[in-house]
Design goal:
The chain is built from 3 helices and 4 strands; from the N terminus they run βαββαβα. By secondary structure, the protein is α+β, with helices and mostly antiparallel strands. A 4-stranded antiparallel β-sheet has the order 2-3-1-4, covered by helices on one side. The chain is globular and about 30 Å long.
Length: 90
């Protein structure tokens, strides 16, 4: 299972400290930040257990940051991204 969060984390040092905190607080979880993304993405993956987004959000909040789950958006075949891909191939 993978959960993706939009965060307020801006600095690499903050991200590294939060990664350590997340790994120490949640068993069987791997986390990483993508601070180059405009949403300062936090990705959390777990193979053996369910990710608890509310607890993760509270943990980041306690450290002075905001986080929100980014919804899974699966575009339909009629979505513009598929139409543009179809045009590129033909």
């Amino acid at each position: 299972m993978v959960e993706v969060f939009k965060t307020s984390v801006k600095e690499q040092k903050e991200a590294e400290a939060l990664i350590s905190l997340i790994h120490n607080s949640f068993a069987d979880v791997m986390a990483n930040f993508d601070l180059d993304d405009c949403d300062n993405i936090l990705r959390v993956q777990s193979i053996n257990s369910e990710i608890q987004p509310d607890k993760l959000i509270r943990l980041l909040k306690a450290e002075g940051h905001t986080a929100e789950v980014l919804p899974d958006i699966v575009p339909s075949f009629g979505h513009p991204i598929f139409r543009s891909l179809y045009r590129e191939k033909n």
